[in-house]
Amino acid sequence: MRFVAALLALSFIYGCSGDKFKQPTSQSSVLVYAIPNKPTTLDPGVVQDSDTIEVLQQVFEGLVGWDENNQPTGILAENWEFQKGGKVILFHLKKGVKFHNGREVKAADFKWSWERVCSAELKSTASSYMTDIVGAKELIEGKATQMSGVKVVDDYTLSVELDTPKPYFLGKMVYVAFAAVAKEAQDGLNEMKGVTNMVGTGPFKAARYENEQLVVLEANKDYHGGAPKIDRIERPVVLDAQTRLNKYKNGELDLCLVQRADVEGIMADGELSSQLKFMDLPSVFFLGFNSSGLYPPFKDRRVRRAFAMAIDRSRIVNTYMKGINTEAHGIIPPGVMGHRDRAADIPFDPEGARKLLAEAGYPGGKGMPLLELRYREGYRDISLVAEAACNDLVKNLGVKVQAQSKEWKALLDAYNRGQNAFFHMRWKGDYLDPQNFISHMHASFGPENHSGYVNPTLDQLCREADRIVDPKERTALYQKAEDIALQDATWVPVYYQRDALLTRPGVSGIRTNAFGFLPHTATVVKKQPKTNN
Questions:
Q1: Residues 379 and 241: beta-carbon distance below 8 Å
Q2: How many alpha carbons lie under 13 Å from residue 508 in its C-beta half-sphere?
Q3: Tens digits of per-residue pLDDT, 11-34?
Q4: pLDDT tier at 113 (50, 70, 90 boundaries)?
Q5: Which end of the chain is more exposed for a tag (fewer CB within 10 A), N or C?
Q6: 220 and 200 in contact (C-beta within 8 Å)?
C-alpha cells in the first residue's frame, strides 16, 4: 500500500482548496473525517492506495482480516485448516452472512470475485496478491478461464491450493482485493464505477459518492458482526492539509492527521495537546530511482549511490520532520520480522558522493540531464522532504534537479507504468513479513518493482526465502537481499512512518492495530457542546 490513510474532516464550501461540496449538518451518530484526495477507485479488486482502502474496508470483507493484535482472524471464514503440509487451505464459511442486497454469501462468490480480479477484462494490478494460488498466473495471462487452485467444495467450504506453502499467505488474504463482491451488482467484469456496484458484506453500505467531493457510508444494521454504533461515516475530499486542520479546530471534523510542522503549535495548545496521539505504522518513506534507462544516468550504480550519499537524511528527519519520525537505515520497518536498527544502508558522505559521480563521468553534475523528483501533492511534510532532498543534490553534487508535485492518481499510474525516474513515495506493509518489503518490492519478479531494478543474486535469495517456512532461516535470507538492494541504491530510505493524529473528545471505541484503523464497528461519536470563552 503506497500511502497512509489520511484522516479527514467535515467540510462546508472548500474555497481556495478546490473543494466544492456543501456538506449537510452532521448529527451525533456521524463520524466525519476527510480524505486528502478523491478515491482512486470504488473497486476493491483494483485499489492500490491506503487512503481508498480505508474507505473500501468498511464496505467489503474477505475470509480473513486483521485483529487488534496484528494477527489474521476469521471474518467471513468461521475457521480454516491447513492440508498437504500447508499447500492447501480449507476455509469453512460462516453461514447466514448476507450481502448488502440481502443475498447469502456462498463459497462460489469468493471463487468468482477472485477470478474477476485476475481477469483480462479488469486488468488489475491487485491480482499480483493472488499469484501464489495455483492457476492464478494462467488466468492473468489469458491462458485459462478460471483459477484452478480454487475449488468450491460445497456452499460453505472453499479449498485454496498454493504453488508452495507460504507462511505469509493468510496475511496477504487480508488485502481487500480478496473480498467477496455480489456478482449480480456488477457490470460484467468491468471496474466498479458507482455505489450501486459496491455491494459487499461489511459493516457499512456505500450510500453516496460525489466525484472529487464526498463519500457517504451508511451503517449496515443487519451486519453479521452486530450493527455499528454509529449511523453514518462521511468522508469529504479536502485537498489541503491546512484546511483540514482549520476545520478540525473549528469543530467541523472528528479526526485529523497532522503535519509535522504543526505539531509544535498543537503541543503548546492546552486543549489540542490533550487530543493528540502518535501512531507508529509498518511503513517506510523513501526516494526511489528508476534504473531501466528512463533517466540514463541511473542505469549506473555509481550514480545512484552518489545520490544516496549526497542526501542528508538525518537533517531532513530532525529539522523538517521535527524529530517525530525515526530516520530509516533499512527497508524493513520496525514491527516487521527482520527489522534491524541499522542495515547496510549508504551513509551521508558529500565528498565521497562527488568523487563517485565524477568516476561515473559526471563531474560536478556536468552532462546530466535535468531531473524531476516527483512527489504526491497535498502533504506539506512530503513537499518539505522532496525539496530538502533536491537542495542537497544541487548543493553537494551540482546536479540539476527540481521537486515537482503530482496529483496522487496520476503519480500512482505513472509509477505502475515505470514512468517515474526519481520519486518520493511510501510503502506500507500489507502484512508483517519481510517478503512484502523485499521480494514484493525489489526482486525482478516482484509485482511492485516498477523501476527496472535487476540483481540476480538478490532474486535468488528472494526465491529461496519465499519457499522456506522456518522464520529464522528465511529472515536471514531476506536481510542479505535487503543489504544488496541498499548497496545498489534502489531506494534511499528516509524515515519510518509515525503519524500524529487529532481525535475530538466524544469520539471513542476506534479500533486500531499496527496498520492503522480497523473498520468502525465499535466507534462511538458523541458531539460535545460548544462553550463560550
A1: yes
A2: 5
A3: 222 233 334 333 434 445 999 999
A4: very high
A5: C
A6: no
How many other β-carbons are positioned within 10 Å of the β-carbon of residue 403? 20
- The answer to whether 272 touches 264, Cβ cutoff 8 Å, is no
Q: Using CA atoms, how far apart are residues 40 and 354, in angstroms rounded to an integer?
A: 41
Closest to 518 (Cα-Cα) out of 218, 69, 117, 172: 69
- Per-residue model confidence as pLDDT tens digits over 134-152: 999 999 999 999 999 999 9
User: What burial class does residue 194 get, using C-beta atoms within 10 Å of its C-beta: 0-12 exposed, 13-18 middle, 19+ buried?
Assistant: exposed
In sequence order, the 6+-apart residues with CB closer than 8 A to the CB of 473 are: none
What does residue 371 show for φ and ψ, rounded to 5 degrees? -120, 145
456 sits in which H/E element: helix 456-467
Phi and psi at residue 518, to the nearest 5°: -95, 165
Rounded to whole angstroms, the Cα distance separating 440 from 514 reads 20
Whether 216 and 232 have beta carbons less than 8 Å apart is answered as yes
Q: Is the pLDDT of residue 414 over 90?
A: yes
The answer to whether the CB of 265 falls within 8 A of the CB of 259 is: no
Q: What pLDDT score was predicted for residue 212?
A: 80
Residue type, 476: A
**Which pLDDT value is given to residue 17?**
34
